């Protein structure tokens, strides 16, 4: 294909050169005058150089245009050839894939047929084996039923003999048991009498100790209430201005108070649960409890607001056991903590 291109370019070049020569000859005067008798005369033919240059330039431009057109045509032909080659290769690949898919499908169909025949044969074999097994089971059941009937007959005879023997033994044991129970009853009555005496003494001692503890607790509570009353009166005057200023600030100050209240609430809940006598039934339940604290964290009161009552009783006992909770330095947070509401939920 490239040799043909070169031949075409050479032919075009020769034609253009021929046209150039023809143009040069066309501008030349070949007319010949007869010689004059007055002597020798030389006639010069003048060729316009500009015309020649224009013709030559036109020929060169035409030749370049023809060369460029030919190159474009050849490039298009090569692109078309490449596209056709790619299309041919793609078609061959598609045909090969179709052939491979067909062979694969035929192979899978053969394998599926073989598998179907194998499964059918196995099913038939299994059905035959099941029939034989069912027959063997039927025979075994009949033999087992016969053996079971014989065994039950022998067992019934043995049971009657054993029942008679057990009846005789039971009558003997009954007499011995009546004697033993009479002796045990007398011994148990004496033990109960001694236990009642000891229990009465223990109850009297516990009541005495409980009464002393109650009186001591009332005394401490009275002292605590008096201290709390005095502290509250002093703190009310001291923090009145601070509380007003805190309410006006809002924003970040309010968020800080809320965060600190939540943090101390978590600490209080942990302290309560550490002192809580946990029972298995408390797991998964919860109690809502409200504590009233003094400014220094002393427990003034604890009341339940909802939840499991048994858990709430244990939670209030744990609060009394703690007796005093830590307090922050911020007066506004202290004020929020003095009437805090907590949720106790043992894990």
Write up what this structure looks like.
The chain is mainly alpha-helical. Among the domains are: 2-25 and 48-108; 250-344, Fusion Protein Consisting Of Minor Coat Protein, Glycine Rich Linker, Tola, And A His Tag, Chain: A, Domain 2, CATH 3.30.1150.10. Helix content is 78%, strand content 6%. It is built from five helices and three strands, in the order αααββααβ. It has helices at 2-26, 49-249, 252-274, 309-322, 331-337, and strands spanning 287-293, 299-307, 341-344. Strands 2-1-3 form a three-stranded antiparallel beta sheet. Strand 1 and strand 2 (299-307) form a beta hairpin. Helix 1 (2-26) crosses helix 2 (49-249), helix 3 crosses helix 4 and helix 3 (252-274) packs across helix 5 (331-337). The longest helix has 201 residues, at 49-249. Residues 29-35 have low confidence and may be disordered. This is Cell envelope integrity protein TolA. It holds the Pfam family TolA. One of its GO terms (cellular component) is membrane. The chain crosses the membrane at residues 6-26.
């Amino acid at each position: 294909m490239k040799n043909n291109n070169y031949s075409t370019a050479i032919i075009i070049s020769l034609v253009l050169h021929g046209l150039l020569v023809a143009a040069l000859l066309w501008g030349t005067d070949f007319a010949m005058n007869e010689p004059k008798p007055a002597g020798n005369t030389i006639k010069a033919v003048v060729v316009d150089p500009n015309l020649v240059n224009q013709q030559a330039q036109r020929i060169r431009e035409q030749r370049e245009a023809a060369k460029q057109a030919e190159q474009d045509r050849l490039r298009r032909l090569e692109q078309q050839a490449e596209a056709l080659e790619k299309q041919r290769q793609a078609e061959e690949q598609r045909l090969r894939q179709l052939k491979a898919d067909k062979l694969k499908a035929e192979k899978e169909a053969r394998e599926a047929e073989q598998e179907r025949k194998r499964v059918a044969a196995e099913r038939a074999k299994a059905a035959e084996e099941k029939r034989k097994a069912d027959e063997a089971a039927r025979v075994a059941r009949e033999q087992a039923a016969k053996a079971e009937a014989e065994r039950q007959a022998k067992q019934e005879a043995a049971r009657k003999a054993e029942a008679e023997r057990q009846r005789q033994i039971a009558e003997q044991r009954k007499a011995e048991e009546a004697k033993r129970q009479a002796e045990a009853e007398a011994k148990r009555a004496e033990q109960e009498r001694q236990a009642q005496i000891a229990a009465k003494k223990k109850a009297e001692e516990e009541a005495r100790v409980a009464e002393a503890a109650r009186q001591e607790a009332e005394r401490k509570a009275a002292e605590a209430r008096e201290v709390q009353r005095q502290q509250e009166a002093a703190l009310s005057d001291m923090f009145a201005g601070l509380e007003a200023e805190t309410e006006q600030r809002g924003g970040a100050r309010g968020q800080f108070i809320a965060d600190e209240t939540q943090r101390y609430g978590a600490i209080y809940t942990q302290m309560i649960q550490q002192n809580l006598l946990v029972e298995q039934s408390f797991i998964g339940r919860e109690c809502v409890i409200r504590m009233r604290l003094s400014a220094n964290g002393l427990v003034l009161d604890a009341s339940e607001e909802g939840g499991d009552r048994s858990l709430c009783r244990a939670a209030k006992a744990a609060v009394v056991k703690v007796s005093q909770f830590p307090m922050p330095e911020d007066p506004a947070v202290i004020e929020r903590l003095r009437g805090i509401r907590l949720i106790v939920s043992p894990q």
